[in-house]
Amino acid sequence: MDEAKRILAGSFTPRPVGSEVVALSDAYGRVLADDVVSSFDIPPFNRSTVDGYAVKASDTFGAEENCPVTLRLTGRVNVGEAPKARVQKGTLAEIVTGAPIPEGADAVVMIEYTERKGDSVLVRQAFSQGENVMKAGSDIRKGETVLKKGITLSPYEIGALAAIGSVKTKVYERPIVAIFSTGAEVIEPGKSLAPGKIFDINAHALSAAVEECGCESRNMGIVQDQPNQMKTALQKALKTADLVITSGGVSVGPTDIIPKVLNTLGKPGVVVYGVAIRPGKPTTIALVNGILVFSLPGHPASSLMIFHLFVRPILICMAGRREQEAVTVKSVVSERLFPARGRRTYVTVTLRKDQSGRIVASPVSTGSSGAITTLSKADGFLIIRENQQFIEKGSCVEVELFKLNTYSSLMREEAQ
Amino acid sequence: MDEAKRILAGSFTPRPVGSEVVALSDAYGRVLADDVVSSFDIPPFNRSTVDGYAVKASDTFGAEENCPVTLRLTGRVNVGEAPKARVQKGTLAEIVTGAPIPEGADAVVMIEYTERKGDSVLVRQAFSQGENVMKAGSDIRKGETVLKKGITLSPYEIGALAAIGSVKTKVYERPIVAIFSTGAEVIEPGKSLAPGKIFDINAHALSAAVEECGCESRNMGIVQDQPNQMKTALQKALKTADLVITSGGVSVGPTDIIPKVLNTLGKPGVVVYGVAIRPGKPTTIALVNGILVFSLPGHPASSLMIFHLFVRPILICMAGRREQEAVTVKSVVSERLFPARGRRTYVTVTLRKDQSGRIVASPVSTGSSGAITTLSKADGFLIIRENQQFIEKGSCVEVELFKLNTYSSLMREEAQ
Asked: Which of B84, B108, B134 is the last residue of a domain?
């Protein structure tokens, strides 16, 4: 496993595949490909933060509750308008929250400290320069970097882009991942189930897993284990995709046809030929003229596990996303667990709270039975190292979660 | 706040708005609207789980390493084919993993316990009935409920749907949410910034927030604070949407025009008129002929906070999703915090680990300055209750996270 990862890291450095410009309304969930710099001061003008009167602060100096200053009203400033009023010594202008400060004014007197008498306004408190004024550019300065590249755009960042009037956003392209299944026994779901056939699971589950990484999947369906058909399918996939995933081929074996074909298609060809882990031993990884090809096991739970361990981190980098650290949960194992002989073993588990509040990890069968129903029951996995003889029932282990929100579900159980 | 929630719960029960049928390739991320029942036994036939020979188990009884039983080879069964061979007493058929068990056979002898001699095979171990056979229906039985309604379809569930050949899936419709902004000062981002104008943030940020809940947003842009324009916009929104959100209207005030217009459009009209919290006091909630209308504050951070507290839980129910329990993180506050007088106060904070590994919550200004840039810096919020005088610097509080993956980011910091 470690060697496979080392070889992979040595032969391929995942990078974003490109960038494109999208409208603000399509930017949610995408990943910024460039730092975003504001072309404007935000706010673009000095703004009142209260309802009241725009004044020259110096005109209010000395004003007190019992000793008001009287100033002459020269006009009114509304929000959304260029102020027509001009505040000169001895005058003030009515203003509302959010409206631009008129020329000559440098503070805003809150309405509760004033009294209106016809065209005159009594001010009963002194205000200093800048009080109740939000200065132009105090939120964002023209030329300032507002968002850094690599961030996934949530509602908050969409709001920041809108704020600076950025309606076109440069985001990373979604890598295109071609996916096909092989095997004489698999047929497309929905077709009639001829004797000896089963419905293809992997191309569909892996397509969804690829989308979950921020990539676009191209489900190429089922390809027969014939060298020519395989070669045609792989050539087509390599032409259109940024990464290729195949799975299955139990009868003839991916260790037979696929690696041979891959070695004829480009350099360096197969770089990893089998990984000493369970499940996932027959995993083959090739690099064909710069494009990675993963050949995953046919067993659905195994192929999703290998996807999680090997493919997902690479696709996340290629999509420009920041890799999330795995979230692990301390749990107690429900039974004694044995590794596959001499191989690092990944045990898929479900998690639940027991009556004493401990989180208990129970293995999900990834063997021949329960291959399908258990897929949707797995919360995460634990690892038995090559040199471990077993993990004792009741001992404490770290379980890595498949889905982050399993964490909040467990918290909810706790709250009940 | 509690009363507003009570009134809301008493006048409106959020329910999924409808269901639609989508193709398997479009089902990822959608929410199942019906239990899914299998029309097939999975596997559809008795399957070999190993490479070897299909036999009558009784023919191997008594076989041992030094005392093999000799059986006659009658044929071979491949994967994906109806078996032509028939196993009778004294015979066996070659078989590979995943291939159907031929008629007459009830066990599979693993190849490593056999020796081939022309048309005869020596079997060196006894096998019991059913050994190395995965029975038809052992994974999923015909008529069995495979997935329960209400689940959000992840790659694992997509795999389960494929397994049972389910290519059309009934999922909940995405509720349609109409959104517009009001205010004389706001203009569409991208337009030229006339004096006194600022770019509209809310319609864009709220559209993304609505999508995050599994709904479709209809951004209707900016509507002027004029009763007729407002009435036309609200009527249009109420006709096309399952829920309506407006924000802003500072100059004339949402407490003026919008509630009046809403009360003319249908019953019961405005049900909540202002909420005693900070930020978000001017929030107005109306129910117009069964459709909820939320009028949120104009301040972007406030409107997103009120969305989070009031609107999001309702939209999640309407989208058919299960509500996620809030994830909270224990943190230490960086400074003494005061509530707004007499109002429950929601303080937006950023979280970071300090050198001793404690998580420190620092308030993000939601006041007049920093309204925009800080939007994208907020990790979550803490609550100061109405009856609390202040929260002391250094005291321990629960911070509710806006984004679940903040949790894993904090874990990553810990790991470093």
From this structure: B134
Angle at A396 between CA A393 and CA A397, to 5 degrees: 105
Helix (H/G/I), strand (E/B), else coil: A381: strand
Q: What letters, b where the CB count within 10 A reaches 16 and e where it falls short, cover B200-213?
A: bbbbbbbbbbbbbb
Q: What is the pLDDT of residue B371?
A: 63
Pick from A99, A129, A94, A98: nearest CA to A110 = A94
Residues of B with Cβ-Cβ distance to A371 under 8 angstroms: 139
Residue A188 contacts residue A224 (beta carbons within 8 Å): no
Contact across the interface for A184 and B208, Cβ inside 8 Å: no
Q: Would you state the pLDDT for residue B365?
A: 66
Contact B376 A159 (CB under 8 A): yes
Closest CA to B178 of B132, B127, B129, B236: B236
3-state secondary structure of B246: strand
Structure tokens at A301: 């739970």
Question: Which stretches of A166-295 are DSSP H helices?
Answer: 202-212, 227-240, 257-265
- B365 part of contact set with chain A, CB < 8 Å: no
CATH code of residue A249? 3.40.980.10
Test A372 with B186 for CB contact under 8 angstroms.
Answer: no
Q: State whether residue B48 sits within 8 Å of chain A by CB.
A: no
- Residue A323 belongs to some domain of the structure: no
DSSP string, A251-283: TT-TTTHHHHHHHHHSSEEEEEE--SEES-TT-
Length of chain B: 416
pTM for the structure as a whole? 0.91
Q: pLDDT digits over A332-373, tens only? A: 999 999 888 778 999 889 898 888 889 999 988 655 444 666
Q: Which residue, among B339, B313, B308, has the nearest Cα to B401 in the 3D structure? A: B308
Asked if residue B160 and residue B27 are part of one domain, the reply reads yes
Q: What is the pLDDT of residues B96-107, one digit of tens each?
A: 988 999 999 999
Q: Are B202 and B246 in contact (CB under 8 A)?
A: no
In this structure, the number of other CB atoms found within 10 A of the CB of residue A47 comes to: 26
A410 lies in which domain range?
Answer: 328-415
